[in-house]
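Below is the data:
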Amino acid sequence: MKKILGIISALVLIVSVSKAAPGDTTWVQAHYDVQMNHFGNFDSSVKFPDGTKTYRKVFMVWTLGRYQCPGNPQYCGDWDYTVSTHLMTKGGDTLELGRYITPYSGDGVPRIGSGAAVENWKQRYTFDVTDFYNVLKDTAAIRVHYSGYSWGFTANVKFAFIEGTPARNVLGMDKMWAKSYAYHTGNPIDNNVTSLNKTSPAGTQAAELKFTISGHGNNGENCAEFCKKYYQVKLNNNLLYQKDIWRDDCGYNHFYPQNGTWIYNRGNWCPGDIVFTNSHPLTGVGASANYDLDVDFQAATASSGGSYTIQSAVVYYGGFNKTLDVSLDDIIAPNNHEIHFRENPIVGRPKVIVQNTGSTTITSIKFQYSIAGVGQPETYTWNGSLTSLKTAEIELAKFAALNTVTGTNTFNVEVIEVNGKADDDATNNKLSSEFEGVPIWDNTVTISMRTNANTVGGVSETSWRLYDIDNNVVQERINNQANTTYNDTLKIGPGGYKLVVTDLGCNGLSWWANPNGGTGSFALRKAPGIVPVALKGYFGGDFGCGFTQYFYYKFPTAVKNINEQLASFKVFPNPAANSVNVTIEGLTTIDGTINIVDMLGRVVVSERTTTSQNTINIDRLTSGVYNVVYSTNTGDGTIKLQQKLVVDK
């Protein structure tokens, strides 16, 4: 999922301190693993900073946990319920700080969130609440509202106040529409979400409508949970924006597998994920401006049921505090954080997210990055155009150190130049992440895939592609037949690879709600063993739209103990360019491996064989002299037959 999930997964590595210096962080705990064991509100009193310091960023880190319900209830932590968190102001009003939907995570799910056991997993959601820093001060109360009717979840809420200068000062905020509104013809939503008249504060240089909306219930046309509708933002009766109330990527949810209908797209939410806030700049609203703002909705057609839950406010900003400033917001990969589960672990190119938080368009960013204690730092300069407040996902240059590290490591990345000179604010230029190294394989790799009955355009929904470190497709299995088993040996040399499995129906190879689709399977094996390799993200076929497996392949140990026998072993044509035929005759049983070995003794091609006639792809080999060797597959490495091969491109 490409949208930033609450910003900055690397926040967990920030040190909690209380010094008055830019970049220092003060943590405030609101709820500590509170069991949400009833429908309704869970309130907690907090003591925020007194407001005398300025903060570059303020985050609300919301950790959802799991506990085993007492007794033997039918459901425990097993439904998609709305959870909203509110600041209760001294004036008696409430402001929603964030909203997410719980996952279908009941007993029996093999992996949730960070990979912990069923009863003790944790899932972190990070909300950027910097716009609220003027009211997040002194003594206050934080309310968690749980809309569930079964239990099993815990709430842990804390705030990180990162000292420094924000991109822009917030001059004020006007709360707008904030409740659940019916969506049907019997009570049209536009009769309740009506135009509001507001006046911006003096000094306002920009204003934005922050609009959080999620659809729930069923009004006869599957609205508002399972229907795709839109809303329109109108300023002084002029249309500014039209936005679909819809998430079309639930099958790529980072929180999987789940029970229930987790893969279905919905009214701006997915089970186990944040309800993202839409930001709409109000062009033309400046200092002391009086204006009318309205939101109109696509008309409903059913006569009852369904609703949209809305929280909205207009935020007024002063001018930019910095001229040239880039904020390094997140490390997508390498990173162990669960919101980036699908993108990790990786080989090849690290990925980061940056934001332009200054007034000047950014055209180049120079990065320096390293793995703690491993080798030397690398540098990479990105070139492009990033205007104020825009974000970009940037893929850095190939980083060889990612290929071979094992265990848990720390990745460090830093912005060292912006537009060819020093950044105005260095406090937002560094991030670190913990990560695990990729699997390293040195045996022949085979893929066995059995498709299910689901087809698109007459071919199977499921396919796979293998990419090298430069994102070139080196092998693929596409346009497959339904209910068919395919066995493929990967024809690869040493290097980093990315195996991408895709399902166009976004329901994997097996899913309980699609019994007519049948059950497919996917397995990766390393010869000569027959036990499948554990694939990160496969989970027995329940993977939604697909999954990705990175790995590094290195040459097997050089072939030993050459022992030719009196049998016919033909290699032709010779010289060869793109493929070579290998014929084995005179052996009672053929069950072994054909290796092509270079003059340094390295195995550059390896294929399992049980037949006398074999065609081997040598397209990736460079010109030179090689040995073609057939060896038994008994595990002792004894070579039966060999012959020289000249490759001439």
Notes: The chain is about 0% helix and 45% strand. The longest strand covers residues 168-182.
